[in-house]
Every structure is written in structure tokens, then in C-alpha cells.
């Protein structure tokens, strides 16, 4: 039916994690949009054949892809920024302009009427009026069958990370025959994916064997703090009073209780954020070494393969990794969408992420 696989567009593509999962499942990703310079460099390095429009999506005309989509669009992926709806964003406000970016996808839907619209975001999005209006619009204007928003955990998809996400699938003329293929996978732990890595050198340099595997240089005070954090756990409450931050000393609430904590080798990691190599921003210390996890460790916890190329400075790469949809989770979901797009007689797509 398809020469190169079903045709997909990846909106808010970031470093290309979604495109990677889609391609691994057999999709033909022809176009993508993002405006962040570092992420776009990374995207191009890994997906050179995809037409990436590096612009604010508000200024992108959907027709910039029309020559690549002569026979209709099969899949439109929308991963708008999640910070406006995230429980981890304590400063969120309904006035956050990024919240309106979901609506920018409407012009692509109007132009191409894709057979599947796939949306990934934080669970908080599902309870907003923006989301309700968007799903109602899909049904009213184009007759999409809009599924219930699903709350999923990346850890159920073989990703060594607790990452709660909301996904929504709307279809037109195709039926998702199976529930999305996400709950079938055995638990993978932090130790499974980073346990074989060597102790990293401190600081980034040109002659690193692995350009992502270097430890952040910690202050003497933070090194002292790390020495008090029990292996495979702990948190800021493990610190003696003299080493606690003034702002934490009198805090009654459990806010930020994970800071300075270690991941556990025997468990999945907490949700990686854009600050995932900073021990002051979450449970991002190594399970047994006195340092934050490296970018390589973060990339593995997000299920990026080691040959994925990242561009940018350390903060930009941490942002690309923390923002990503875990490619393994995306691959598993994409298999189900692939199956839906195949004619019934040809629907025996492998459902095993390990194969
Ligand atoms: C949650 S991240 C997407 C992650 C990506 N799907 C992945 O798997 O790596 C959201 C992305 O939206 C991009 N973005 C935010 N506002 C944008 C805008 N106005 N136009 C284009 N891209 C934008 C950000 O640069 C960021 O890469």
C-alpha cells in the first residue's frame, strides 16, 4: 500500500525523538517543525532526509509541505510544549502564551485532514478548556472519532523512567484495532541501562571518548552534601542541618523533597526534566557515585540509542533530552498506529519492541 510507509508530520519535533520512534516503526516522516536552534541542529543530524522548517509555528504555512504529501497525510503528531500544563511548573499561569500553541496545529489538520491525529502531553492538559475545545473542534469540523485521553506511564513501555503522560488519538476512516501497545513490557531499571558505563571524567572536553559521558563539576559544598545522601535514594531531608539550604530549613511542605536525591539502580528513574543533570532540580544524582547523572545516562534513561547525535552546549542538550518523548515509548505506540493504517489482510505488524 505504501512505498515508504505511511506519511507523517512531526509538529514541535524538538531533537527528533518522536520522529525516531515513528521511523523505527515504519512511518515515513516527511516534515517537521520546531524553532529552537540547538534542537533543530540535533534533528537535522539524525533525520537529514526530513524537511525541517525551523520557524515559529505561528509563521509556518502548512503548504510548505504540500509537495511531500501528494496522496494525503496519514499521521499528524502534535507535541506542543507541556510546561503550561505541567504539575512541575509552579509558576504556570493561564495567561501562558504557549498554551495557545495547540491551536496552531489546527491549520495543518484543516489543510491535510490526516487519518490519525496523535497528541502527547502532560496529563494536566486533558482537564483544560483548550483541550476540550480542541477535541470538540476535531469532531465537529471534520468528523474525527476522538478517543478518550489516555494516561500512560513510559515505564510500562520498557522505558526506565516513571513518566506520566497523556496521549490522545483521533482517527478518520481508520480504526485502532488494538489498544495502544504500551502496557506489555517488562520493567527496565536505571541499573539495566547505565550500570555498564565507566566512571566519567569531570568536565566536558574535546577528547572525551563519549561526548555525552562527563560529570558536572560540583561545588565543594554540593560534594559535601552528596556524601550525606544514602546510596540509591535519600533527598534533601537526608542532609544535616548545617548543610541544608536556608530556604529548605523551615519548609514544612514536601516541596522539592527529591532535590539532592539519588536514583536507585533497582528502580525506574523519576521523570527527567530539562534540569536532569542538576542535583538541585530533582532526584538526579547518580545511585552510587557522588555526582549528578551525565548526559549519556540521561539519554539512556530516555531510551535514546547511543548513536543518536546531540548538538549544543550541555544545558541545551539536557533540555533536548528532558523535553523528549521517550523514543521507545513512541515506537511502541507507533506500532499500533501502523497496524491501524494497514489493510486488514496485511495487519501482522510485529508488536514486540525488543525484536
Ligand atoms: C515537548 S517539546 C517536543 C519534544 C519532541 N517532540 C521530542 O520528542 O523530542 C516542545 C517543543 O516545542 C518547541 N516549540 C515551542 N514553541 C514553539 C513555536 N512557537 N514554534 C515552533 N516550535 C516551538 C520547543 O522548541 C520544543 O522543542
From TrEMBL:
Record field: transmembrane: none
Domain of life according to the entry: Bacteria
Active site feature: 82
InterPro entries: C5-Methyltransferase, C5_DNA_meth_AS, C5_MeTfrase, SAM-dependent_MTases_sf
UniProt keyword Transferase, yes or no: yes
Pfam families named among the record's database cross-references: DNA_methylase (PF00145)
One annotated GO biological process: methylation
Swiss-Prot/TrEMBL catalytic activity: a 2'-deoxycytidine in DNA + S-adenosyl-L-methionine = a 5-methyl-2'-deoxycytidine in DNA + S-adenosyl-L-homocysteine + H(+)
UniProt entry keywords in alphabetical sequence: Methyltransferase, Restriction system, S-adenosyl-L-methionine, Transferase
NCBIfam families given in the database record: dcm (TIGR00675)
Protein family (similarity comment): Belongs to the class I-like SAM-binding methyltransferase superfamily. C5-methyltransferase family.
Protein name: Cytosine-specific methyltransferase
Organism: Stenotrophomonas lacuserhaii
Source organism phylogeny: Bacteria, Pseudomonadati, Pseudomonadota, Gammaproteobacteria, Lysobacterales
